[in-house]
Amino acid sequence: MGGGIIGVVISRQSGGGVREYTNMFALRLRNTITREVNWLHHDLTMAQVECRYPNLRGEDTKLELRVRYILGDLPLLYSKDRHTFNFFYEQVKSDYLEDESKAAEGMDFDTAIQLACIEIKRVFKRMNGCAMDKKSNLEHLEKEVGLHKFLPAYILNTTKQKTLRKALQGNFKKFAAFSDYECHFKFLETLGKVRRFDIESFRCALGCGWSIPVTLLVGPTVGISYRTDSASTAQHMANFEQIQSVETLQSSCEQHRKALVQFKVAGTTEALTITCPSIGAAESLADLVDGYCRLVNQSNVSLWTVWVSQWRTIPCYCQKEDNVHSPKREEEGGGGGGGGGGGGGGGSGGEGGGPKRSSGRRSGGGGGGEDYAEIVDDEGDYSTPASRDYELNRAALEVGAIIGEGQFGDVHKGHYRLQDGSLQPVAIKTCKEIEGGGGRGGGGGGRAEKFLEEAYVMQQFDHPHIIKLVGIVSGSPFLIVMELARHGELRAFLQANRDTLSAPTLLLYTFQLSTALSYLESKKFVHRDIAARNVLVSAHDCVKLGDFGLSRWVEEHSYYKASKGKLPIKWMAPESINFRRFTSASDVWMFGVCMWEILQLGVKPFQGVRNNDVIKRIENGERLALPTNCPPRLYSLMSLCWSYEPHRRPTFREIREALREILRDERQQQQDLKRRETRRVHGLSWGVDEPPPKPARTATTTTTTATLEPLLLQGLETPASQGLEERLKLQQRQSIEDQRWLVEQEWNFRSNSGKN
């Protein structure tokens, strides 16, 4: 089936001409909702495909033609099969511009601008080096062509138009003399340095039984290689020319269901065995290697028999090994993630016989994955307070449209029918089932426990600025039902309303979050993921803290040590990056970054900086710059939150009171400004009807400020605030003089009237 359809499609693309490298193409089924991908073996018939994938004709399923098996010599492909090369080039470019799951992955601003200039030159071949200096040409690119065809959405959304224009003008001259050939290969070379489009990665394990978790790499330059979690370089195992057969197997034990791929390699006595987390991942790997073998051998004969009925079973290792092996070994040896490079989930060990749960935060490449990176370590410890029953009736739930995507599944808008018959708007988190099990990223009860972990944390909180848990639904599919925030996440809200949000409103958001975090601090909880993307907007004047997937309870004067898993590096305190140490003080650092995001209207911190370089900049004393229109006192508070030593940072209680005072002063200044503007517009005269109002006087001492530490007081008493107080005193003296003048004028007027 696959080979026939591919032949027809590419033949029509090339106008009926002969294509040299048709073996580079493959067909895949992609679900646009779940993003699940299934590659179709080129020997499958249409009947077999419909039997294996019953949802093939659904609206959410797309059949896509892709170049999957990449020729190692791309210049040869360019010269011999231009149609296939152009198809591959457009595919790479489209993935770079449109794949939100990998947005900004290793990509800095300068590289993105270079790629845009190269592509502009390739498309508009007649443009010379000075063409971009003309305003009309830039406006044509922006309005008629669209910069989204050259730059990823995250660059366009976070960069000012003026900055983009200057960057394009400054870089375009470097590539103005490039030919079509040079543009193509310079683009691929530049992109390939930060994103390997010629390599597919699989999170799996070497061998069977007590296997070793690795990242398997497959591509024309690496052949079949692997990289362990602790190694920086890949170890080569085999070339495609050496592969003699490909076989897929599964273990016979229901408890330890495993999918394996075995490669018979020339010159070796034992088969190369790879353990995959699911049958789908095993089939994807087998198809990929088989396709490369057909490409390099210039043959249409497959080395892999794909029929499911011929999947051979093998005895489970638990039937062959003594029972003295600990079941924990299975958890430690299992592979995580699936085909396409998903990383393994992070686990946390329990201490003192407590329950073991894993946060698994964004470990499988879910939404927002570009903000998280993994720090490798072994174990962690935490304890979770006991929970009470929050079970809901599944029949009382009405699941609506998808409004977001979580690590374990989609987030839906819905309604919950209360006992009185009324409908309560809710947000419903789903946990989709996966094939395979065991190890990190496996299914079954462990996956459900990880999914419900956020509910275990949320049920203990009751605060006006923390998202409330409505309840959970046990049994497949598991559901978490939460309070619905009508306006979605704060970061998107800030970007969409950047022209209408006032400074007092932004300060109000920071103050409300500080009250929520002060509440968590009193409960001895660390959040570990304080960022604008994890704050939800219930109303234009009300935000609420959410996403407690990383939250942990810690003893007083203690800390939480995170285990394996992806973490938001650019938001984290230095001790969290270096030592995986999380306390209320590290939450204070993250809140400082979150305040910076809010004042910057949704801009992410450390744009264009690699995760590995963030800690170097912090240790060199570099901090996030002063946001536009940020009150100096607030930036002083943010700077205190970013003190390198945790003990020098203020507590959330101190931050809350400081923000309360800053918010009050900012509102007072806004009111004074509005009154002065009103008098100016209406042409009011202070000497006609009444004397001018007394200007507001800032309190010299307040109870809130008095409670702060001397270091915090020093930071808050900035020259700007002192200058403001001097101006207010001057206005007060002028007001007194005006009042005296009015009294004198009235006395003179009465005296003159009496004489007359």
From TrEMBL:
One of its GO terms (cellular component) is cell projection. Its main location: other. SMART domains: B41, TyrKc. Residues 334-355 have a biased composition (Gly residues). ATP binds at K429. The keyword ATP-binding applies. CDD domains: FERM_B-lobe (cd14473), FERM_C_FAK1 (cd13190). GO terms for molecular function: ATP binding; protein tyrosine kinase activity. Residues 325-386, 668-702 are annotated as: Disordered. Residues 371-381 have a biased composition (Acidic residues). It comes from the Eukaryota. It is found in: Cell junction, Focal adhesion; Cell membrane; Cell projection. This is Focal adhesion kinase. It comes from Scylla paramamosain (Mud crab).
